[in-house]
UniProtKB/TrEMBL annotation:
<keyword id="KW-0256">Endoplasmic reticulum</keyword>
<comment type="subunit">
    <text>Component of the ER membrane protein complex (EMC).</text>
</comment>
<keyword id="KW-0472">Membrane</keyword>
<dbReference type="GO" id="GO:0072546">
    <property type="term" value="C:EMC complex"/>
</dbReference>
<dbReference type="InterPro" id="IPR039856">
    <property type="entry name" value="EMC2-like"/>
</dbReference>
<protein>
    <recommendedName>
        <fullName>ER membrane protein complex subunit 2</fullName>
    </recommendedName>
</protein>
<comment type="function">
    <text>Part of the endoplasmic reticulum membrane protein complex (EMC) that enables the energy-independent insertion into endoplasmic reticulum membranes of newly synthesized membrane proteins.</text>
</comment>
<keyword id="KW-0802">TPR repeat</keyword>
<comment type="similarity">
    <text>Belongs to the EMC2 family.</text>
</comment>
C-alpha cells in the first residue's frame, strides 16, 4: 500500500539532505521513480514550498539519470512557479547548459558579476558561487580549489557548508590535517543545535540505563522526546522513544508514532540508519 504520509516525509528528508547527489546509478533511478509516482498522487498535505523542493530534487535526478526531456519539463514547471530570477532556477538552467556541453562557468561568472556582486542577498551569491566552483571541475585538494574556497570563506565566514568543504579540501591535500581539523571545528561551532540534539538524546539514554523506575523512565522519555523535537528524523531519538514507551503503561499512541517514524527511516537511502531501524523494529 502506498502511504502518502510516509512517502512524503521520506522524500522531503532526502531532498533536504541533498543525499541524491551521492547515490549509485540504480538508486538514482529508483528514487526518481518514487518521486514521480508520489507527485502523480496529488498529495493535498504537501505545501507549495515542499512541492518545489521535491521538483528541484526531481530535476537533478532526471539530469543524473539522463532523462533530458523530463528534466526540461520539470525545469519549466519550476521556472513558472519561481520566476526566471530565482537563484535555484538559474542554477538549474546552468545545469542544463553543462549537460549540453555549453559554457556553464561563463554563465555563472557573468550572472554573479552582473546581478549579485552588489546585491543585498548574500545567500543567493554564496549559493551560486558554490555552484560555480562545482562547474569548474577543479581537482579536489588542489591549490586552485583551496584558494577559491578560501576567497569565499573570507566573504562568508559563517557558512558551515563552506567550512566543511574546505576541510575536505585540506584532507585531500597532503600535510594539511591541522588545517582540516580547524575547518571542521568551525562546522561544530556553527551547528550547536545538532550537538544539543545528540546530547539530549544521550542524556535520555543514560537516565534510562540508570534505573527502570517509573519516574526515571518518564524523565528518560522526556529527554528522548526533546531530541526528536529538535530533529524529527533523528534515529537515535526515535529509537529511545520507541524502546522506553513500550516499557510504560498508557503509551500505546507514542509507541505507534515511534514505530511509524522508524519505518520511515528504514525506507531511507542511508543504509546504516535503515539497517539500525530495521533491527530495532524486529527486536519487538
Amino acid at each position: 500500500m502506498f502511504d502518502l504520509g510516509l512517502m512524503r516525509e521520506r522524500l522531503l528528508t532526502v531532498a533536504a539532505g541533498r543525499v541524491y547527489f551521492r547515490l549509485s546509478a540504480g538508486e538514482i533511478v529508483r528514487l526518481q521513480g518514487d518521486v514521480k509516482a508520489y507527485l502523480s498522487r496529488g498529495d493535498r498535505a504537501l505545501s507549495k514550498v515542499q512541492l518545489l523542493a521535491l521538483l528541484e530534487m526531481h530535476f537533478y535526478l532526471c539530469v543524473l539519470s539522463g532523462a533530458d526531456k523530463e528534466a526540461l519539463s520539470v525545469f519549466h514547471r519550476c521556472r513558472d512557479n519561481l520566476g526566471v530570477n530565482s537563484p535555484k532556477v538559474q542554477a538549474m538552467y546552468a545545469t542544463l547548459l553543462q549537460s549540453d556541453g555549453e559554457d556553464a562557468v561563463g554563465y555563472y561568472t557573468k550572472l554573479l558579476q552582473d546581478e549579485y556582486e552588489y546585491s543585498t542577498d548574500p545567500a543567493s551569491y554564496v549559493f551560486l558561487s558554490k555552484r560555480l566552483l562545482a562547474a569548474r571541475g577543479l581537482e579536489e585538494g588542489s591549490p586552485q580549489m583551496i584558494e577559491q574556497v578560501g576567497a569565499l570563506l573570507e566573504r562568508f565566514p559563517l557558512d558551515a557548508e563552506l567550512w566543511w568543504f574546505m576541510g575536505d579540501q585540506y584532507l585531500c591535500a597532503q600535510g594539511q590535517l591541522s588545517k582540516a581539523a580547524y575547518c571542521f571545528e568551525q562546522v561544530l561551532l556553527s551547528h550547536a543545535l545538532q550537538l544539543l540534539r545528540f546530547c539530549t538524546a544521550r542524556r535520555g539514554a543514560v537516565v534510562h540505563e540508570q534505573s527502570g523506575a517509573p519516574g526515571e523512565l518518564s524523565r528518560a522519555l522526556e529527554y528522548a522526546l526533546r531530541s526528536v523535537e529538535l530533529s524529527e528524523t533523528f534515529l537515535r531519538g526515535w529509537s529511545l522513544v520507541y524502546t522506553i514507551s513500550k516499557q510504560m503503561k498508557g503509551k500505546d499512541e507514542l509507541v505507534q508514532l515511534a514505530r511509524s517514524r522508524l519505518q520511515s527511516i528504514e525506507e531511507s537511502f542511508n543504509e546504516r540508519d535503515s539497517a539500525t531501524a530495521r533491527y530495532i523494529l524486529k527486536a519487538e
